[in-house]
Design brief:
Elements lengths: L1 E5 L5 H10 L3 E5 L3 H8 L10 H10 L3 E4 L2 H4 L5 E4 L15 H13 L5 E5 L7 H9 L4 E5 L9 H6 L4 E4 L3 H10 L5 E4 L1 H32 L3 H9 L20 H14 L5 H32 L4 E5 L14 H9 L5 E5 L4 H8 L4 E3 L2 H5 L4 E4 L11 H7 L4 E4 L6 H7 L2 E4 L6
Parallel strand pairs: 1-2, 1-4, 2-3, 4-5, 5-6, 7-8, 9-10, 9-12, 10-11, 12-13, 13-14
Helix pairs in contact: 1-3, 9-11, 9-12, 11-12, 12-13
The protein binds uridine-5'-diphosphate-xylopyranose.
The site of uridine-5'-diphosphate-xylopyranose (UDX) has 20 residues, from helix 9.
Length: 433
C-alpha cells in the first residue's frame, strides 16, 4: 500500500518506519526543509529505541522516502496519515489546530482522482474530523480518525504491539482498506467522534491514575504507610491494574499535560462539568512546586550548618525514561524552581542534555557522566526514571560526594542498600522524621 505520512515527529516518523518495515511504500512529508534534508541524509533528530536501525534498513530497501511537498508526497497515496502537532494554543488551553488546517487545505488542493483515505492520527478535539471533511470536500476521500497510542521511548514497540487499533469511520470501503493494512490486529471500528474522544479519554484517565497515586503517596508520607505496598495492593485488583501506579514528581511530556488541558477546554465549550480532570491538572502543576520546596527545605538544613552554596546534582531531565524529550518535563520545572535559590546546580541525563540546554541555557552545569555530576555534591536527586540510574556505582558516588543526601524521587533504588552505603536517603511516599 502507498502511504503518505504528514508530520515526521515522535509519532509520524516511527509510524512511517514501522509501516515501511511491513513492506508498505512510505513517503514522509514535513514542511521543515532542514529536517527533511537531514532525514534524506539518514540523520534522525529524535531518540527512539531501535528507530535508527530500522530507519537505515527501510531506507536502504527504498521503502521510505521523504518530501517537503504535500503536492508531491501524496500523489500516489492510497492512505494519507495526518500526524502533525496539536500543541496547546499560546493564550488558551485549547488544542492549536493550525497545522491540521494548513495541511488539510493543501491536501484538498492536491488530492488525486483516485480513492484516498485521510486518517487523522494527531490528537484532535472531538468534531475536528467534521471540520477537516468540510475542508477536503471530496467524494473520493474518506476522512477517518485513527488516533495514536504510542508512548514516547517505546513508540516502535507500541506500533508493533498495540493493545488496540481504534478507527473512527462509517465508510465500509475505508474499513476494508484499514482491515487490510492492520491485518490480524485487534481493530475497534467506531464512529469518528467516539474515536477522537477515546484518545483524550485514555490519556486523561492515565494522567488521573498517576495523579491519584501521587496523592496517595502524600498521604503515606504523613501516615507512615508505604506507597509501594499500597500501589502493589491496588494493582492486584484486575479492575485497577498495576500499571501507571508509580508515584513520582508528577506527569509531564508532550501529551498528558496538553491533552488534559484540551479535554477540559472541550468540556467547558460544551458546558460539561469536568471537576476531576480540572483537579488533576491543578494538582499536578502544584506537585512540581511542592517537590522543589521539599528539596529547598532539605538544602537549607545543610546550609545552616555549613553556610556555603549548596551543590545539588540532578540525575534526569527528560520528562520520562527512554526519551530525549524535555517538553513539559517535571524534572526541568523542578530545576527551574531551584534556580530561584543560590544553589550550584549540576545536571546529568543519558539522552536529554541537548534539549534541556535549549531551556535551562547556562543557568546550570551539564555533565556527560553521572560521576562527574555527583562529584563534591551535597545532594543527589533522581528526577527521571532511567533504568541506568538503578545500576550506577553508588559506593563510588558516595565517596566523591560532599554531604551524602540522596533524594530518590522516582523510587528507583533499594533504600536499605543506600542506607547501608551511608547515604541520608529519602524516597517518595514514605514518612521520614
Ligand atoms: C502517553 C500515553 O502513555 C500514550 O499512550 C499516548 O499515545 C501519548 O501519551 P507519553 O506521554 O510518551 O505517552 O508518556 P507516558 O509513558 O505515558 O508517561 C507520561 C508521564 O507520566 C511521564 O512524565 C512519566 O514519568 C509519568 N509517569 C508515568 C508517572 O509519573 N508514573 C507512572 O506510573 C507512569
Amino acid at each position: 500500500m502507498n502511504i503518505s505520512i504528514i508530520g515526521t515527529g515522535y509519532v509520524g516518523l516511527p509510524t512511517g518506519v514501522g509501516f515501511a518495515s511491513l513492506g508498505h511504500n512510505i513517503c514522509c512529508i514535513d514542511k521543515d526543509l532542514d529536517k527533511i534534508d537531514r532525514l534524506k541524509k539518514g540523520e534522525i533528530d529524535i531518540y527512539e529505541e531501535n528507530l535508527e536501525e530500522l530507519f537505515c534498513k527501510v531506507t536502504e530497501e527504498q521503502k521510505l522516502t521523504f518530501s517537503y511537498s504535500i503536492k508531491e508526497g501524496i500523489q500516489n497515496a492510497d492512505l494519507i496519515i495526518l500526524a502533525v502537532g496539536t500543541p496547546t494554543e499560546q493564550n488558551s488551553d485549547k488544542a492549536d489546530l493550525t497545522y491540521i488546517k494548513e495541511a488539510s487545505k493543501e491536501i484538498a488542493e492536491h488530492l488525486s482522482d483516485r480513492y484516498t483515505i485521510l486518517a487523522i492520527k494527531s490528537t484532535v478535539p472531538v468534531c475536528t474530523g467534521d471540520m477537516i471533511e468540510e475542508i477536503i470536500d471530496r467524494k473520493n476521500c474518506d476522512v477517518i480518525s485513527m488516533p495514536e497510542f504510542l508512548r514516547e521511548g517505546f513508540a516502535l514497540y507500541d506500533f508493533f504491539n498495540p493493545d488496540r487499533i481504534v478507527v473512527g469511520t462509517n465508510s465500509e470501503k475505508a474499513k476494508k482498506v484499514i482491515q487490510q493494512l492492520y491485518d490480524g490486529k485487534n481493530i475497534l471500528f467506531t464512529d469518528r467522534r467516539s474515536a477522537e474522544l477515546i484518545k483524550y479519554a485514555s490519556n486523561a484517565f492515565l494522567a488521573t491514575k498517576i495523579h491519584y497515586i501521587n496523592e496517595i503517596a502524600d498521604l503515606c508520607e504523613k501516615t507512615g504507610a508505604n506507597i509501594e505496598n499500597v500501589a502493589k495492593g491496588l494493582g492486584l485488583d484486575s479492575r485497577i491494574g498495576n500499571k501507571f501506579l508509580n508515584a513520582g514528581i508528577g506527569f509531564g511530556g508532550s501529551c498528558f499535560p496538553k491533552d488534559t488541558r484540551a479535554l477540559l477546554q472541550t468540556a467547558n465549550e460544551f458546558n460539561v462539568e469536568f471537576s476531576l480532570v480540572k483537579n488533576v491538572i491543578e494538582g499536578n502543576n502544584k506537585r512540581k512546586k511542592e517537590i522543589a520546596q521539599k528539596i529547598i527545605q532539605k538544602a537549607k538544613s545543610i546550609k545552616k550548618q555549613e553556610n556555603k552554596s549548596i551543590r545539588i546534582a540532578i540525575f534526569g531531565l527528560a520528562f520520562k525514561n527512554n526519551t530525549d524529550d524535555c517538553r513539559e518535563s517535571p524534572a526541568i520545572e523542578i530545576v527551574q524552581n531551584l534556580l530561584n535559590e543560590d544553589f550550584i546546580i549540576e545536571v546529568y541525563d543519558p539522552k536529554a542534555i541537548d534539549n534541556a540546554q535549549k531551556i535551562l541555557k547556562n543557568k546550570v552545569t551539564y555533565y556527560k557522566y553521572p560521576e562527574m555530576c555527583a562529584f563534591r555534591a551535597d545532594m543527589l536527586i533522581l528526577l527521571t526514571e532511567w533504568e541506568e540510574f538503578k545500576i550506577l556505582d553508588y559506593e563510588k558516588i558516595y565517596e566523591i560526594m560532599n554531604n551524602k543526601i540522596l533524594l530518590d524521587y522516582r523510587n528507583l533504588l533499594d533504600e536499605e542498600k543506600m542506607k547501608k552505603i551511608g547515604f541520608e536517603y529519602e524516597r517518595i511516599g514514605k514518612k521520614y522524621d
